[in-house]
Amino acid sequence: MQMIMHSHLESSPLPRYDYFCPANDRTVEVTHSISVTLRTWGEVCKAARVQRGKTPASAKVQRMIGPAMLLGTRHGPSGGAGHGGGSCCGEAGCHG
Question: Across the chain, what does the average pLDDT equal?
Answer without folding.
Answer: 72
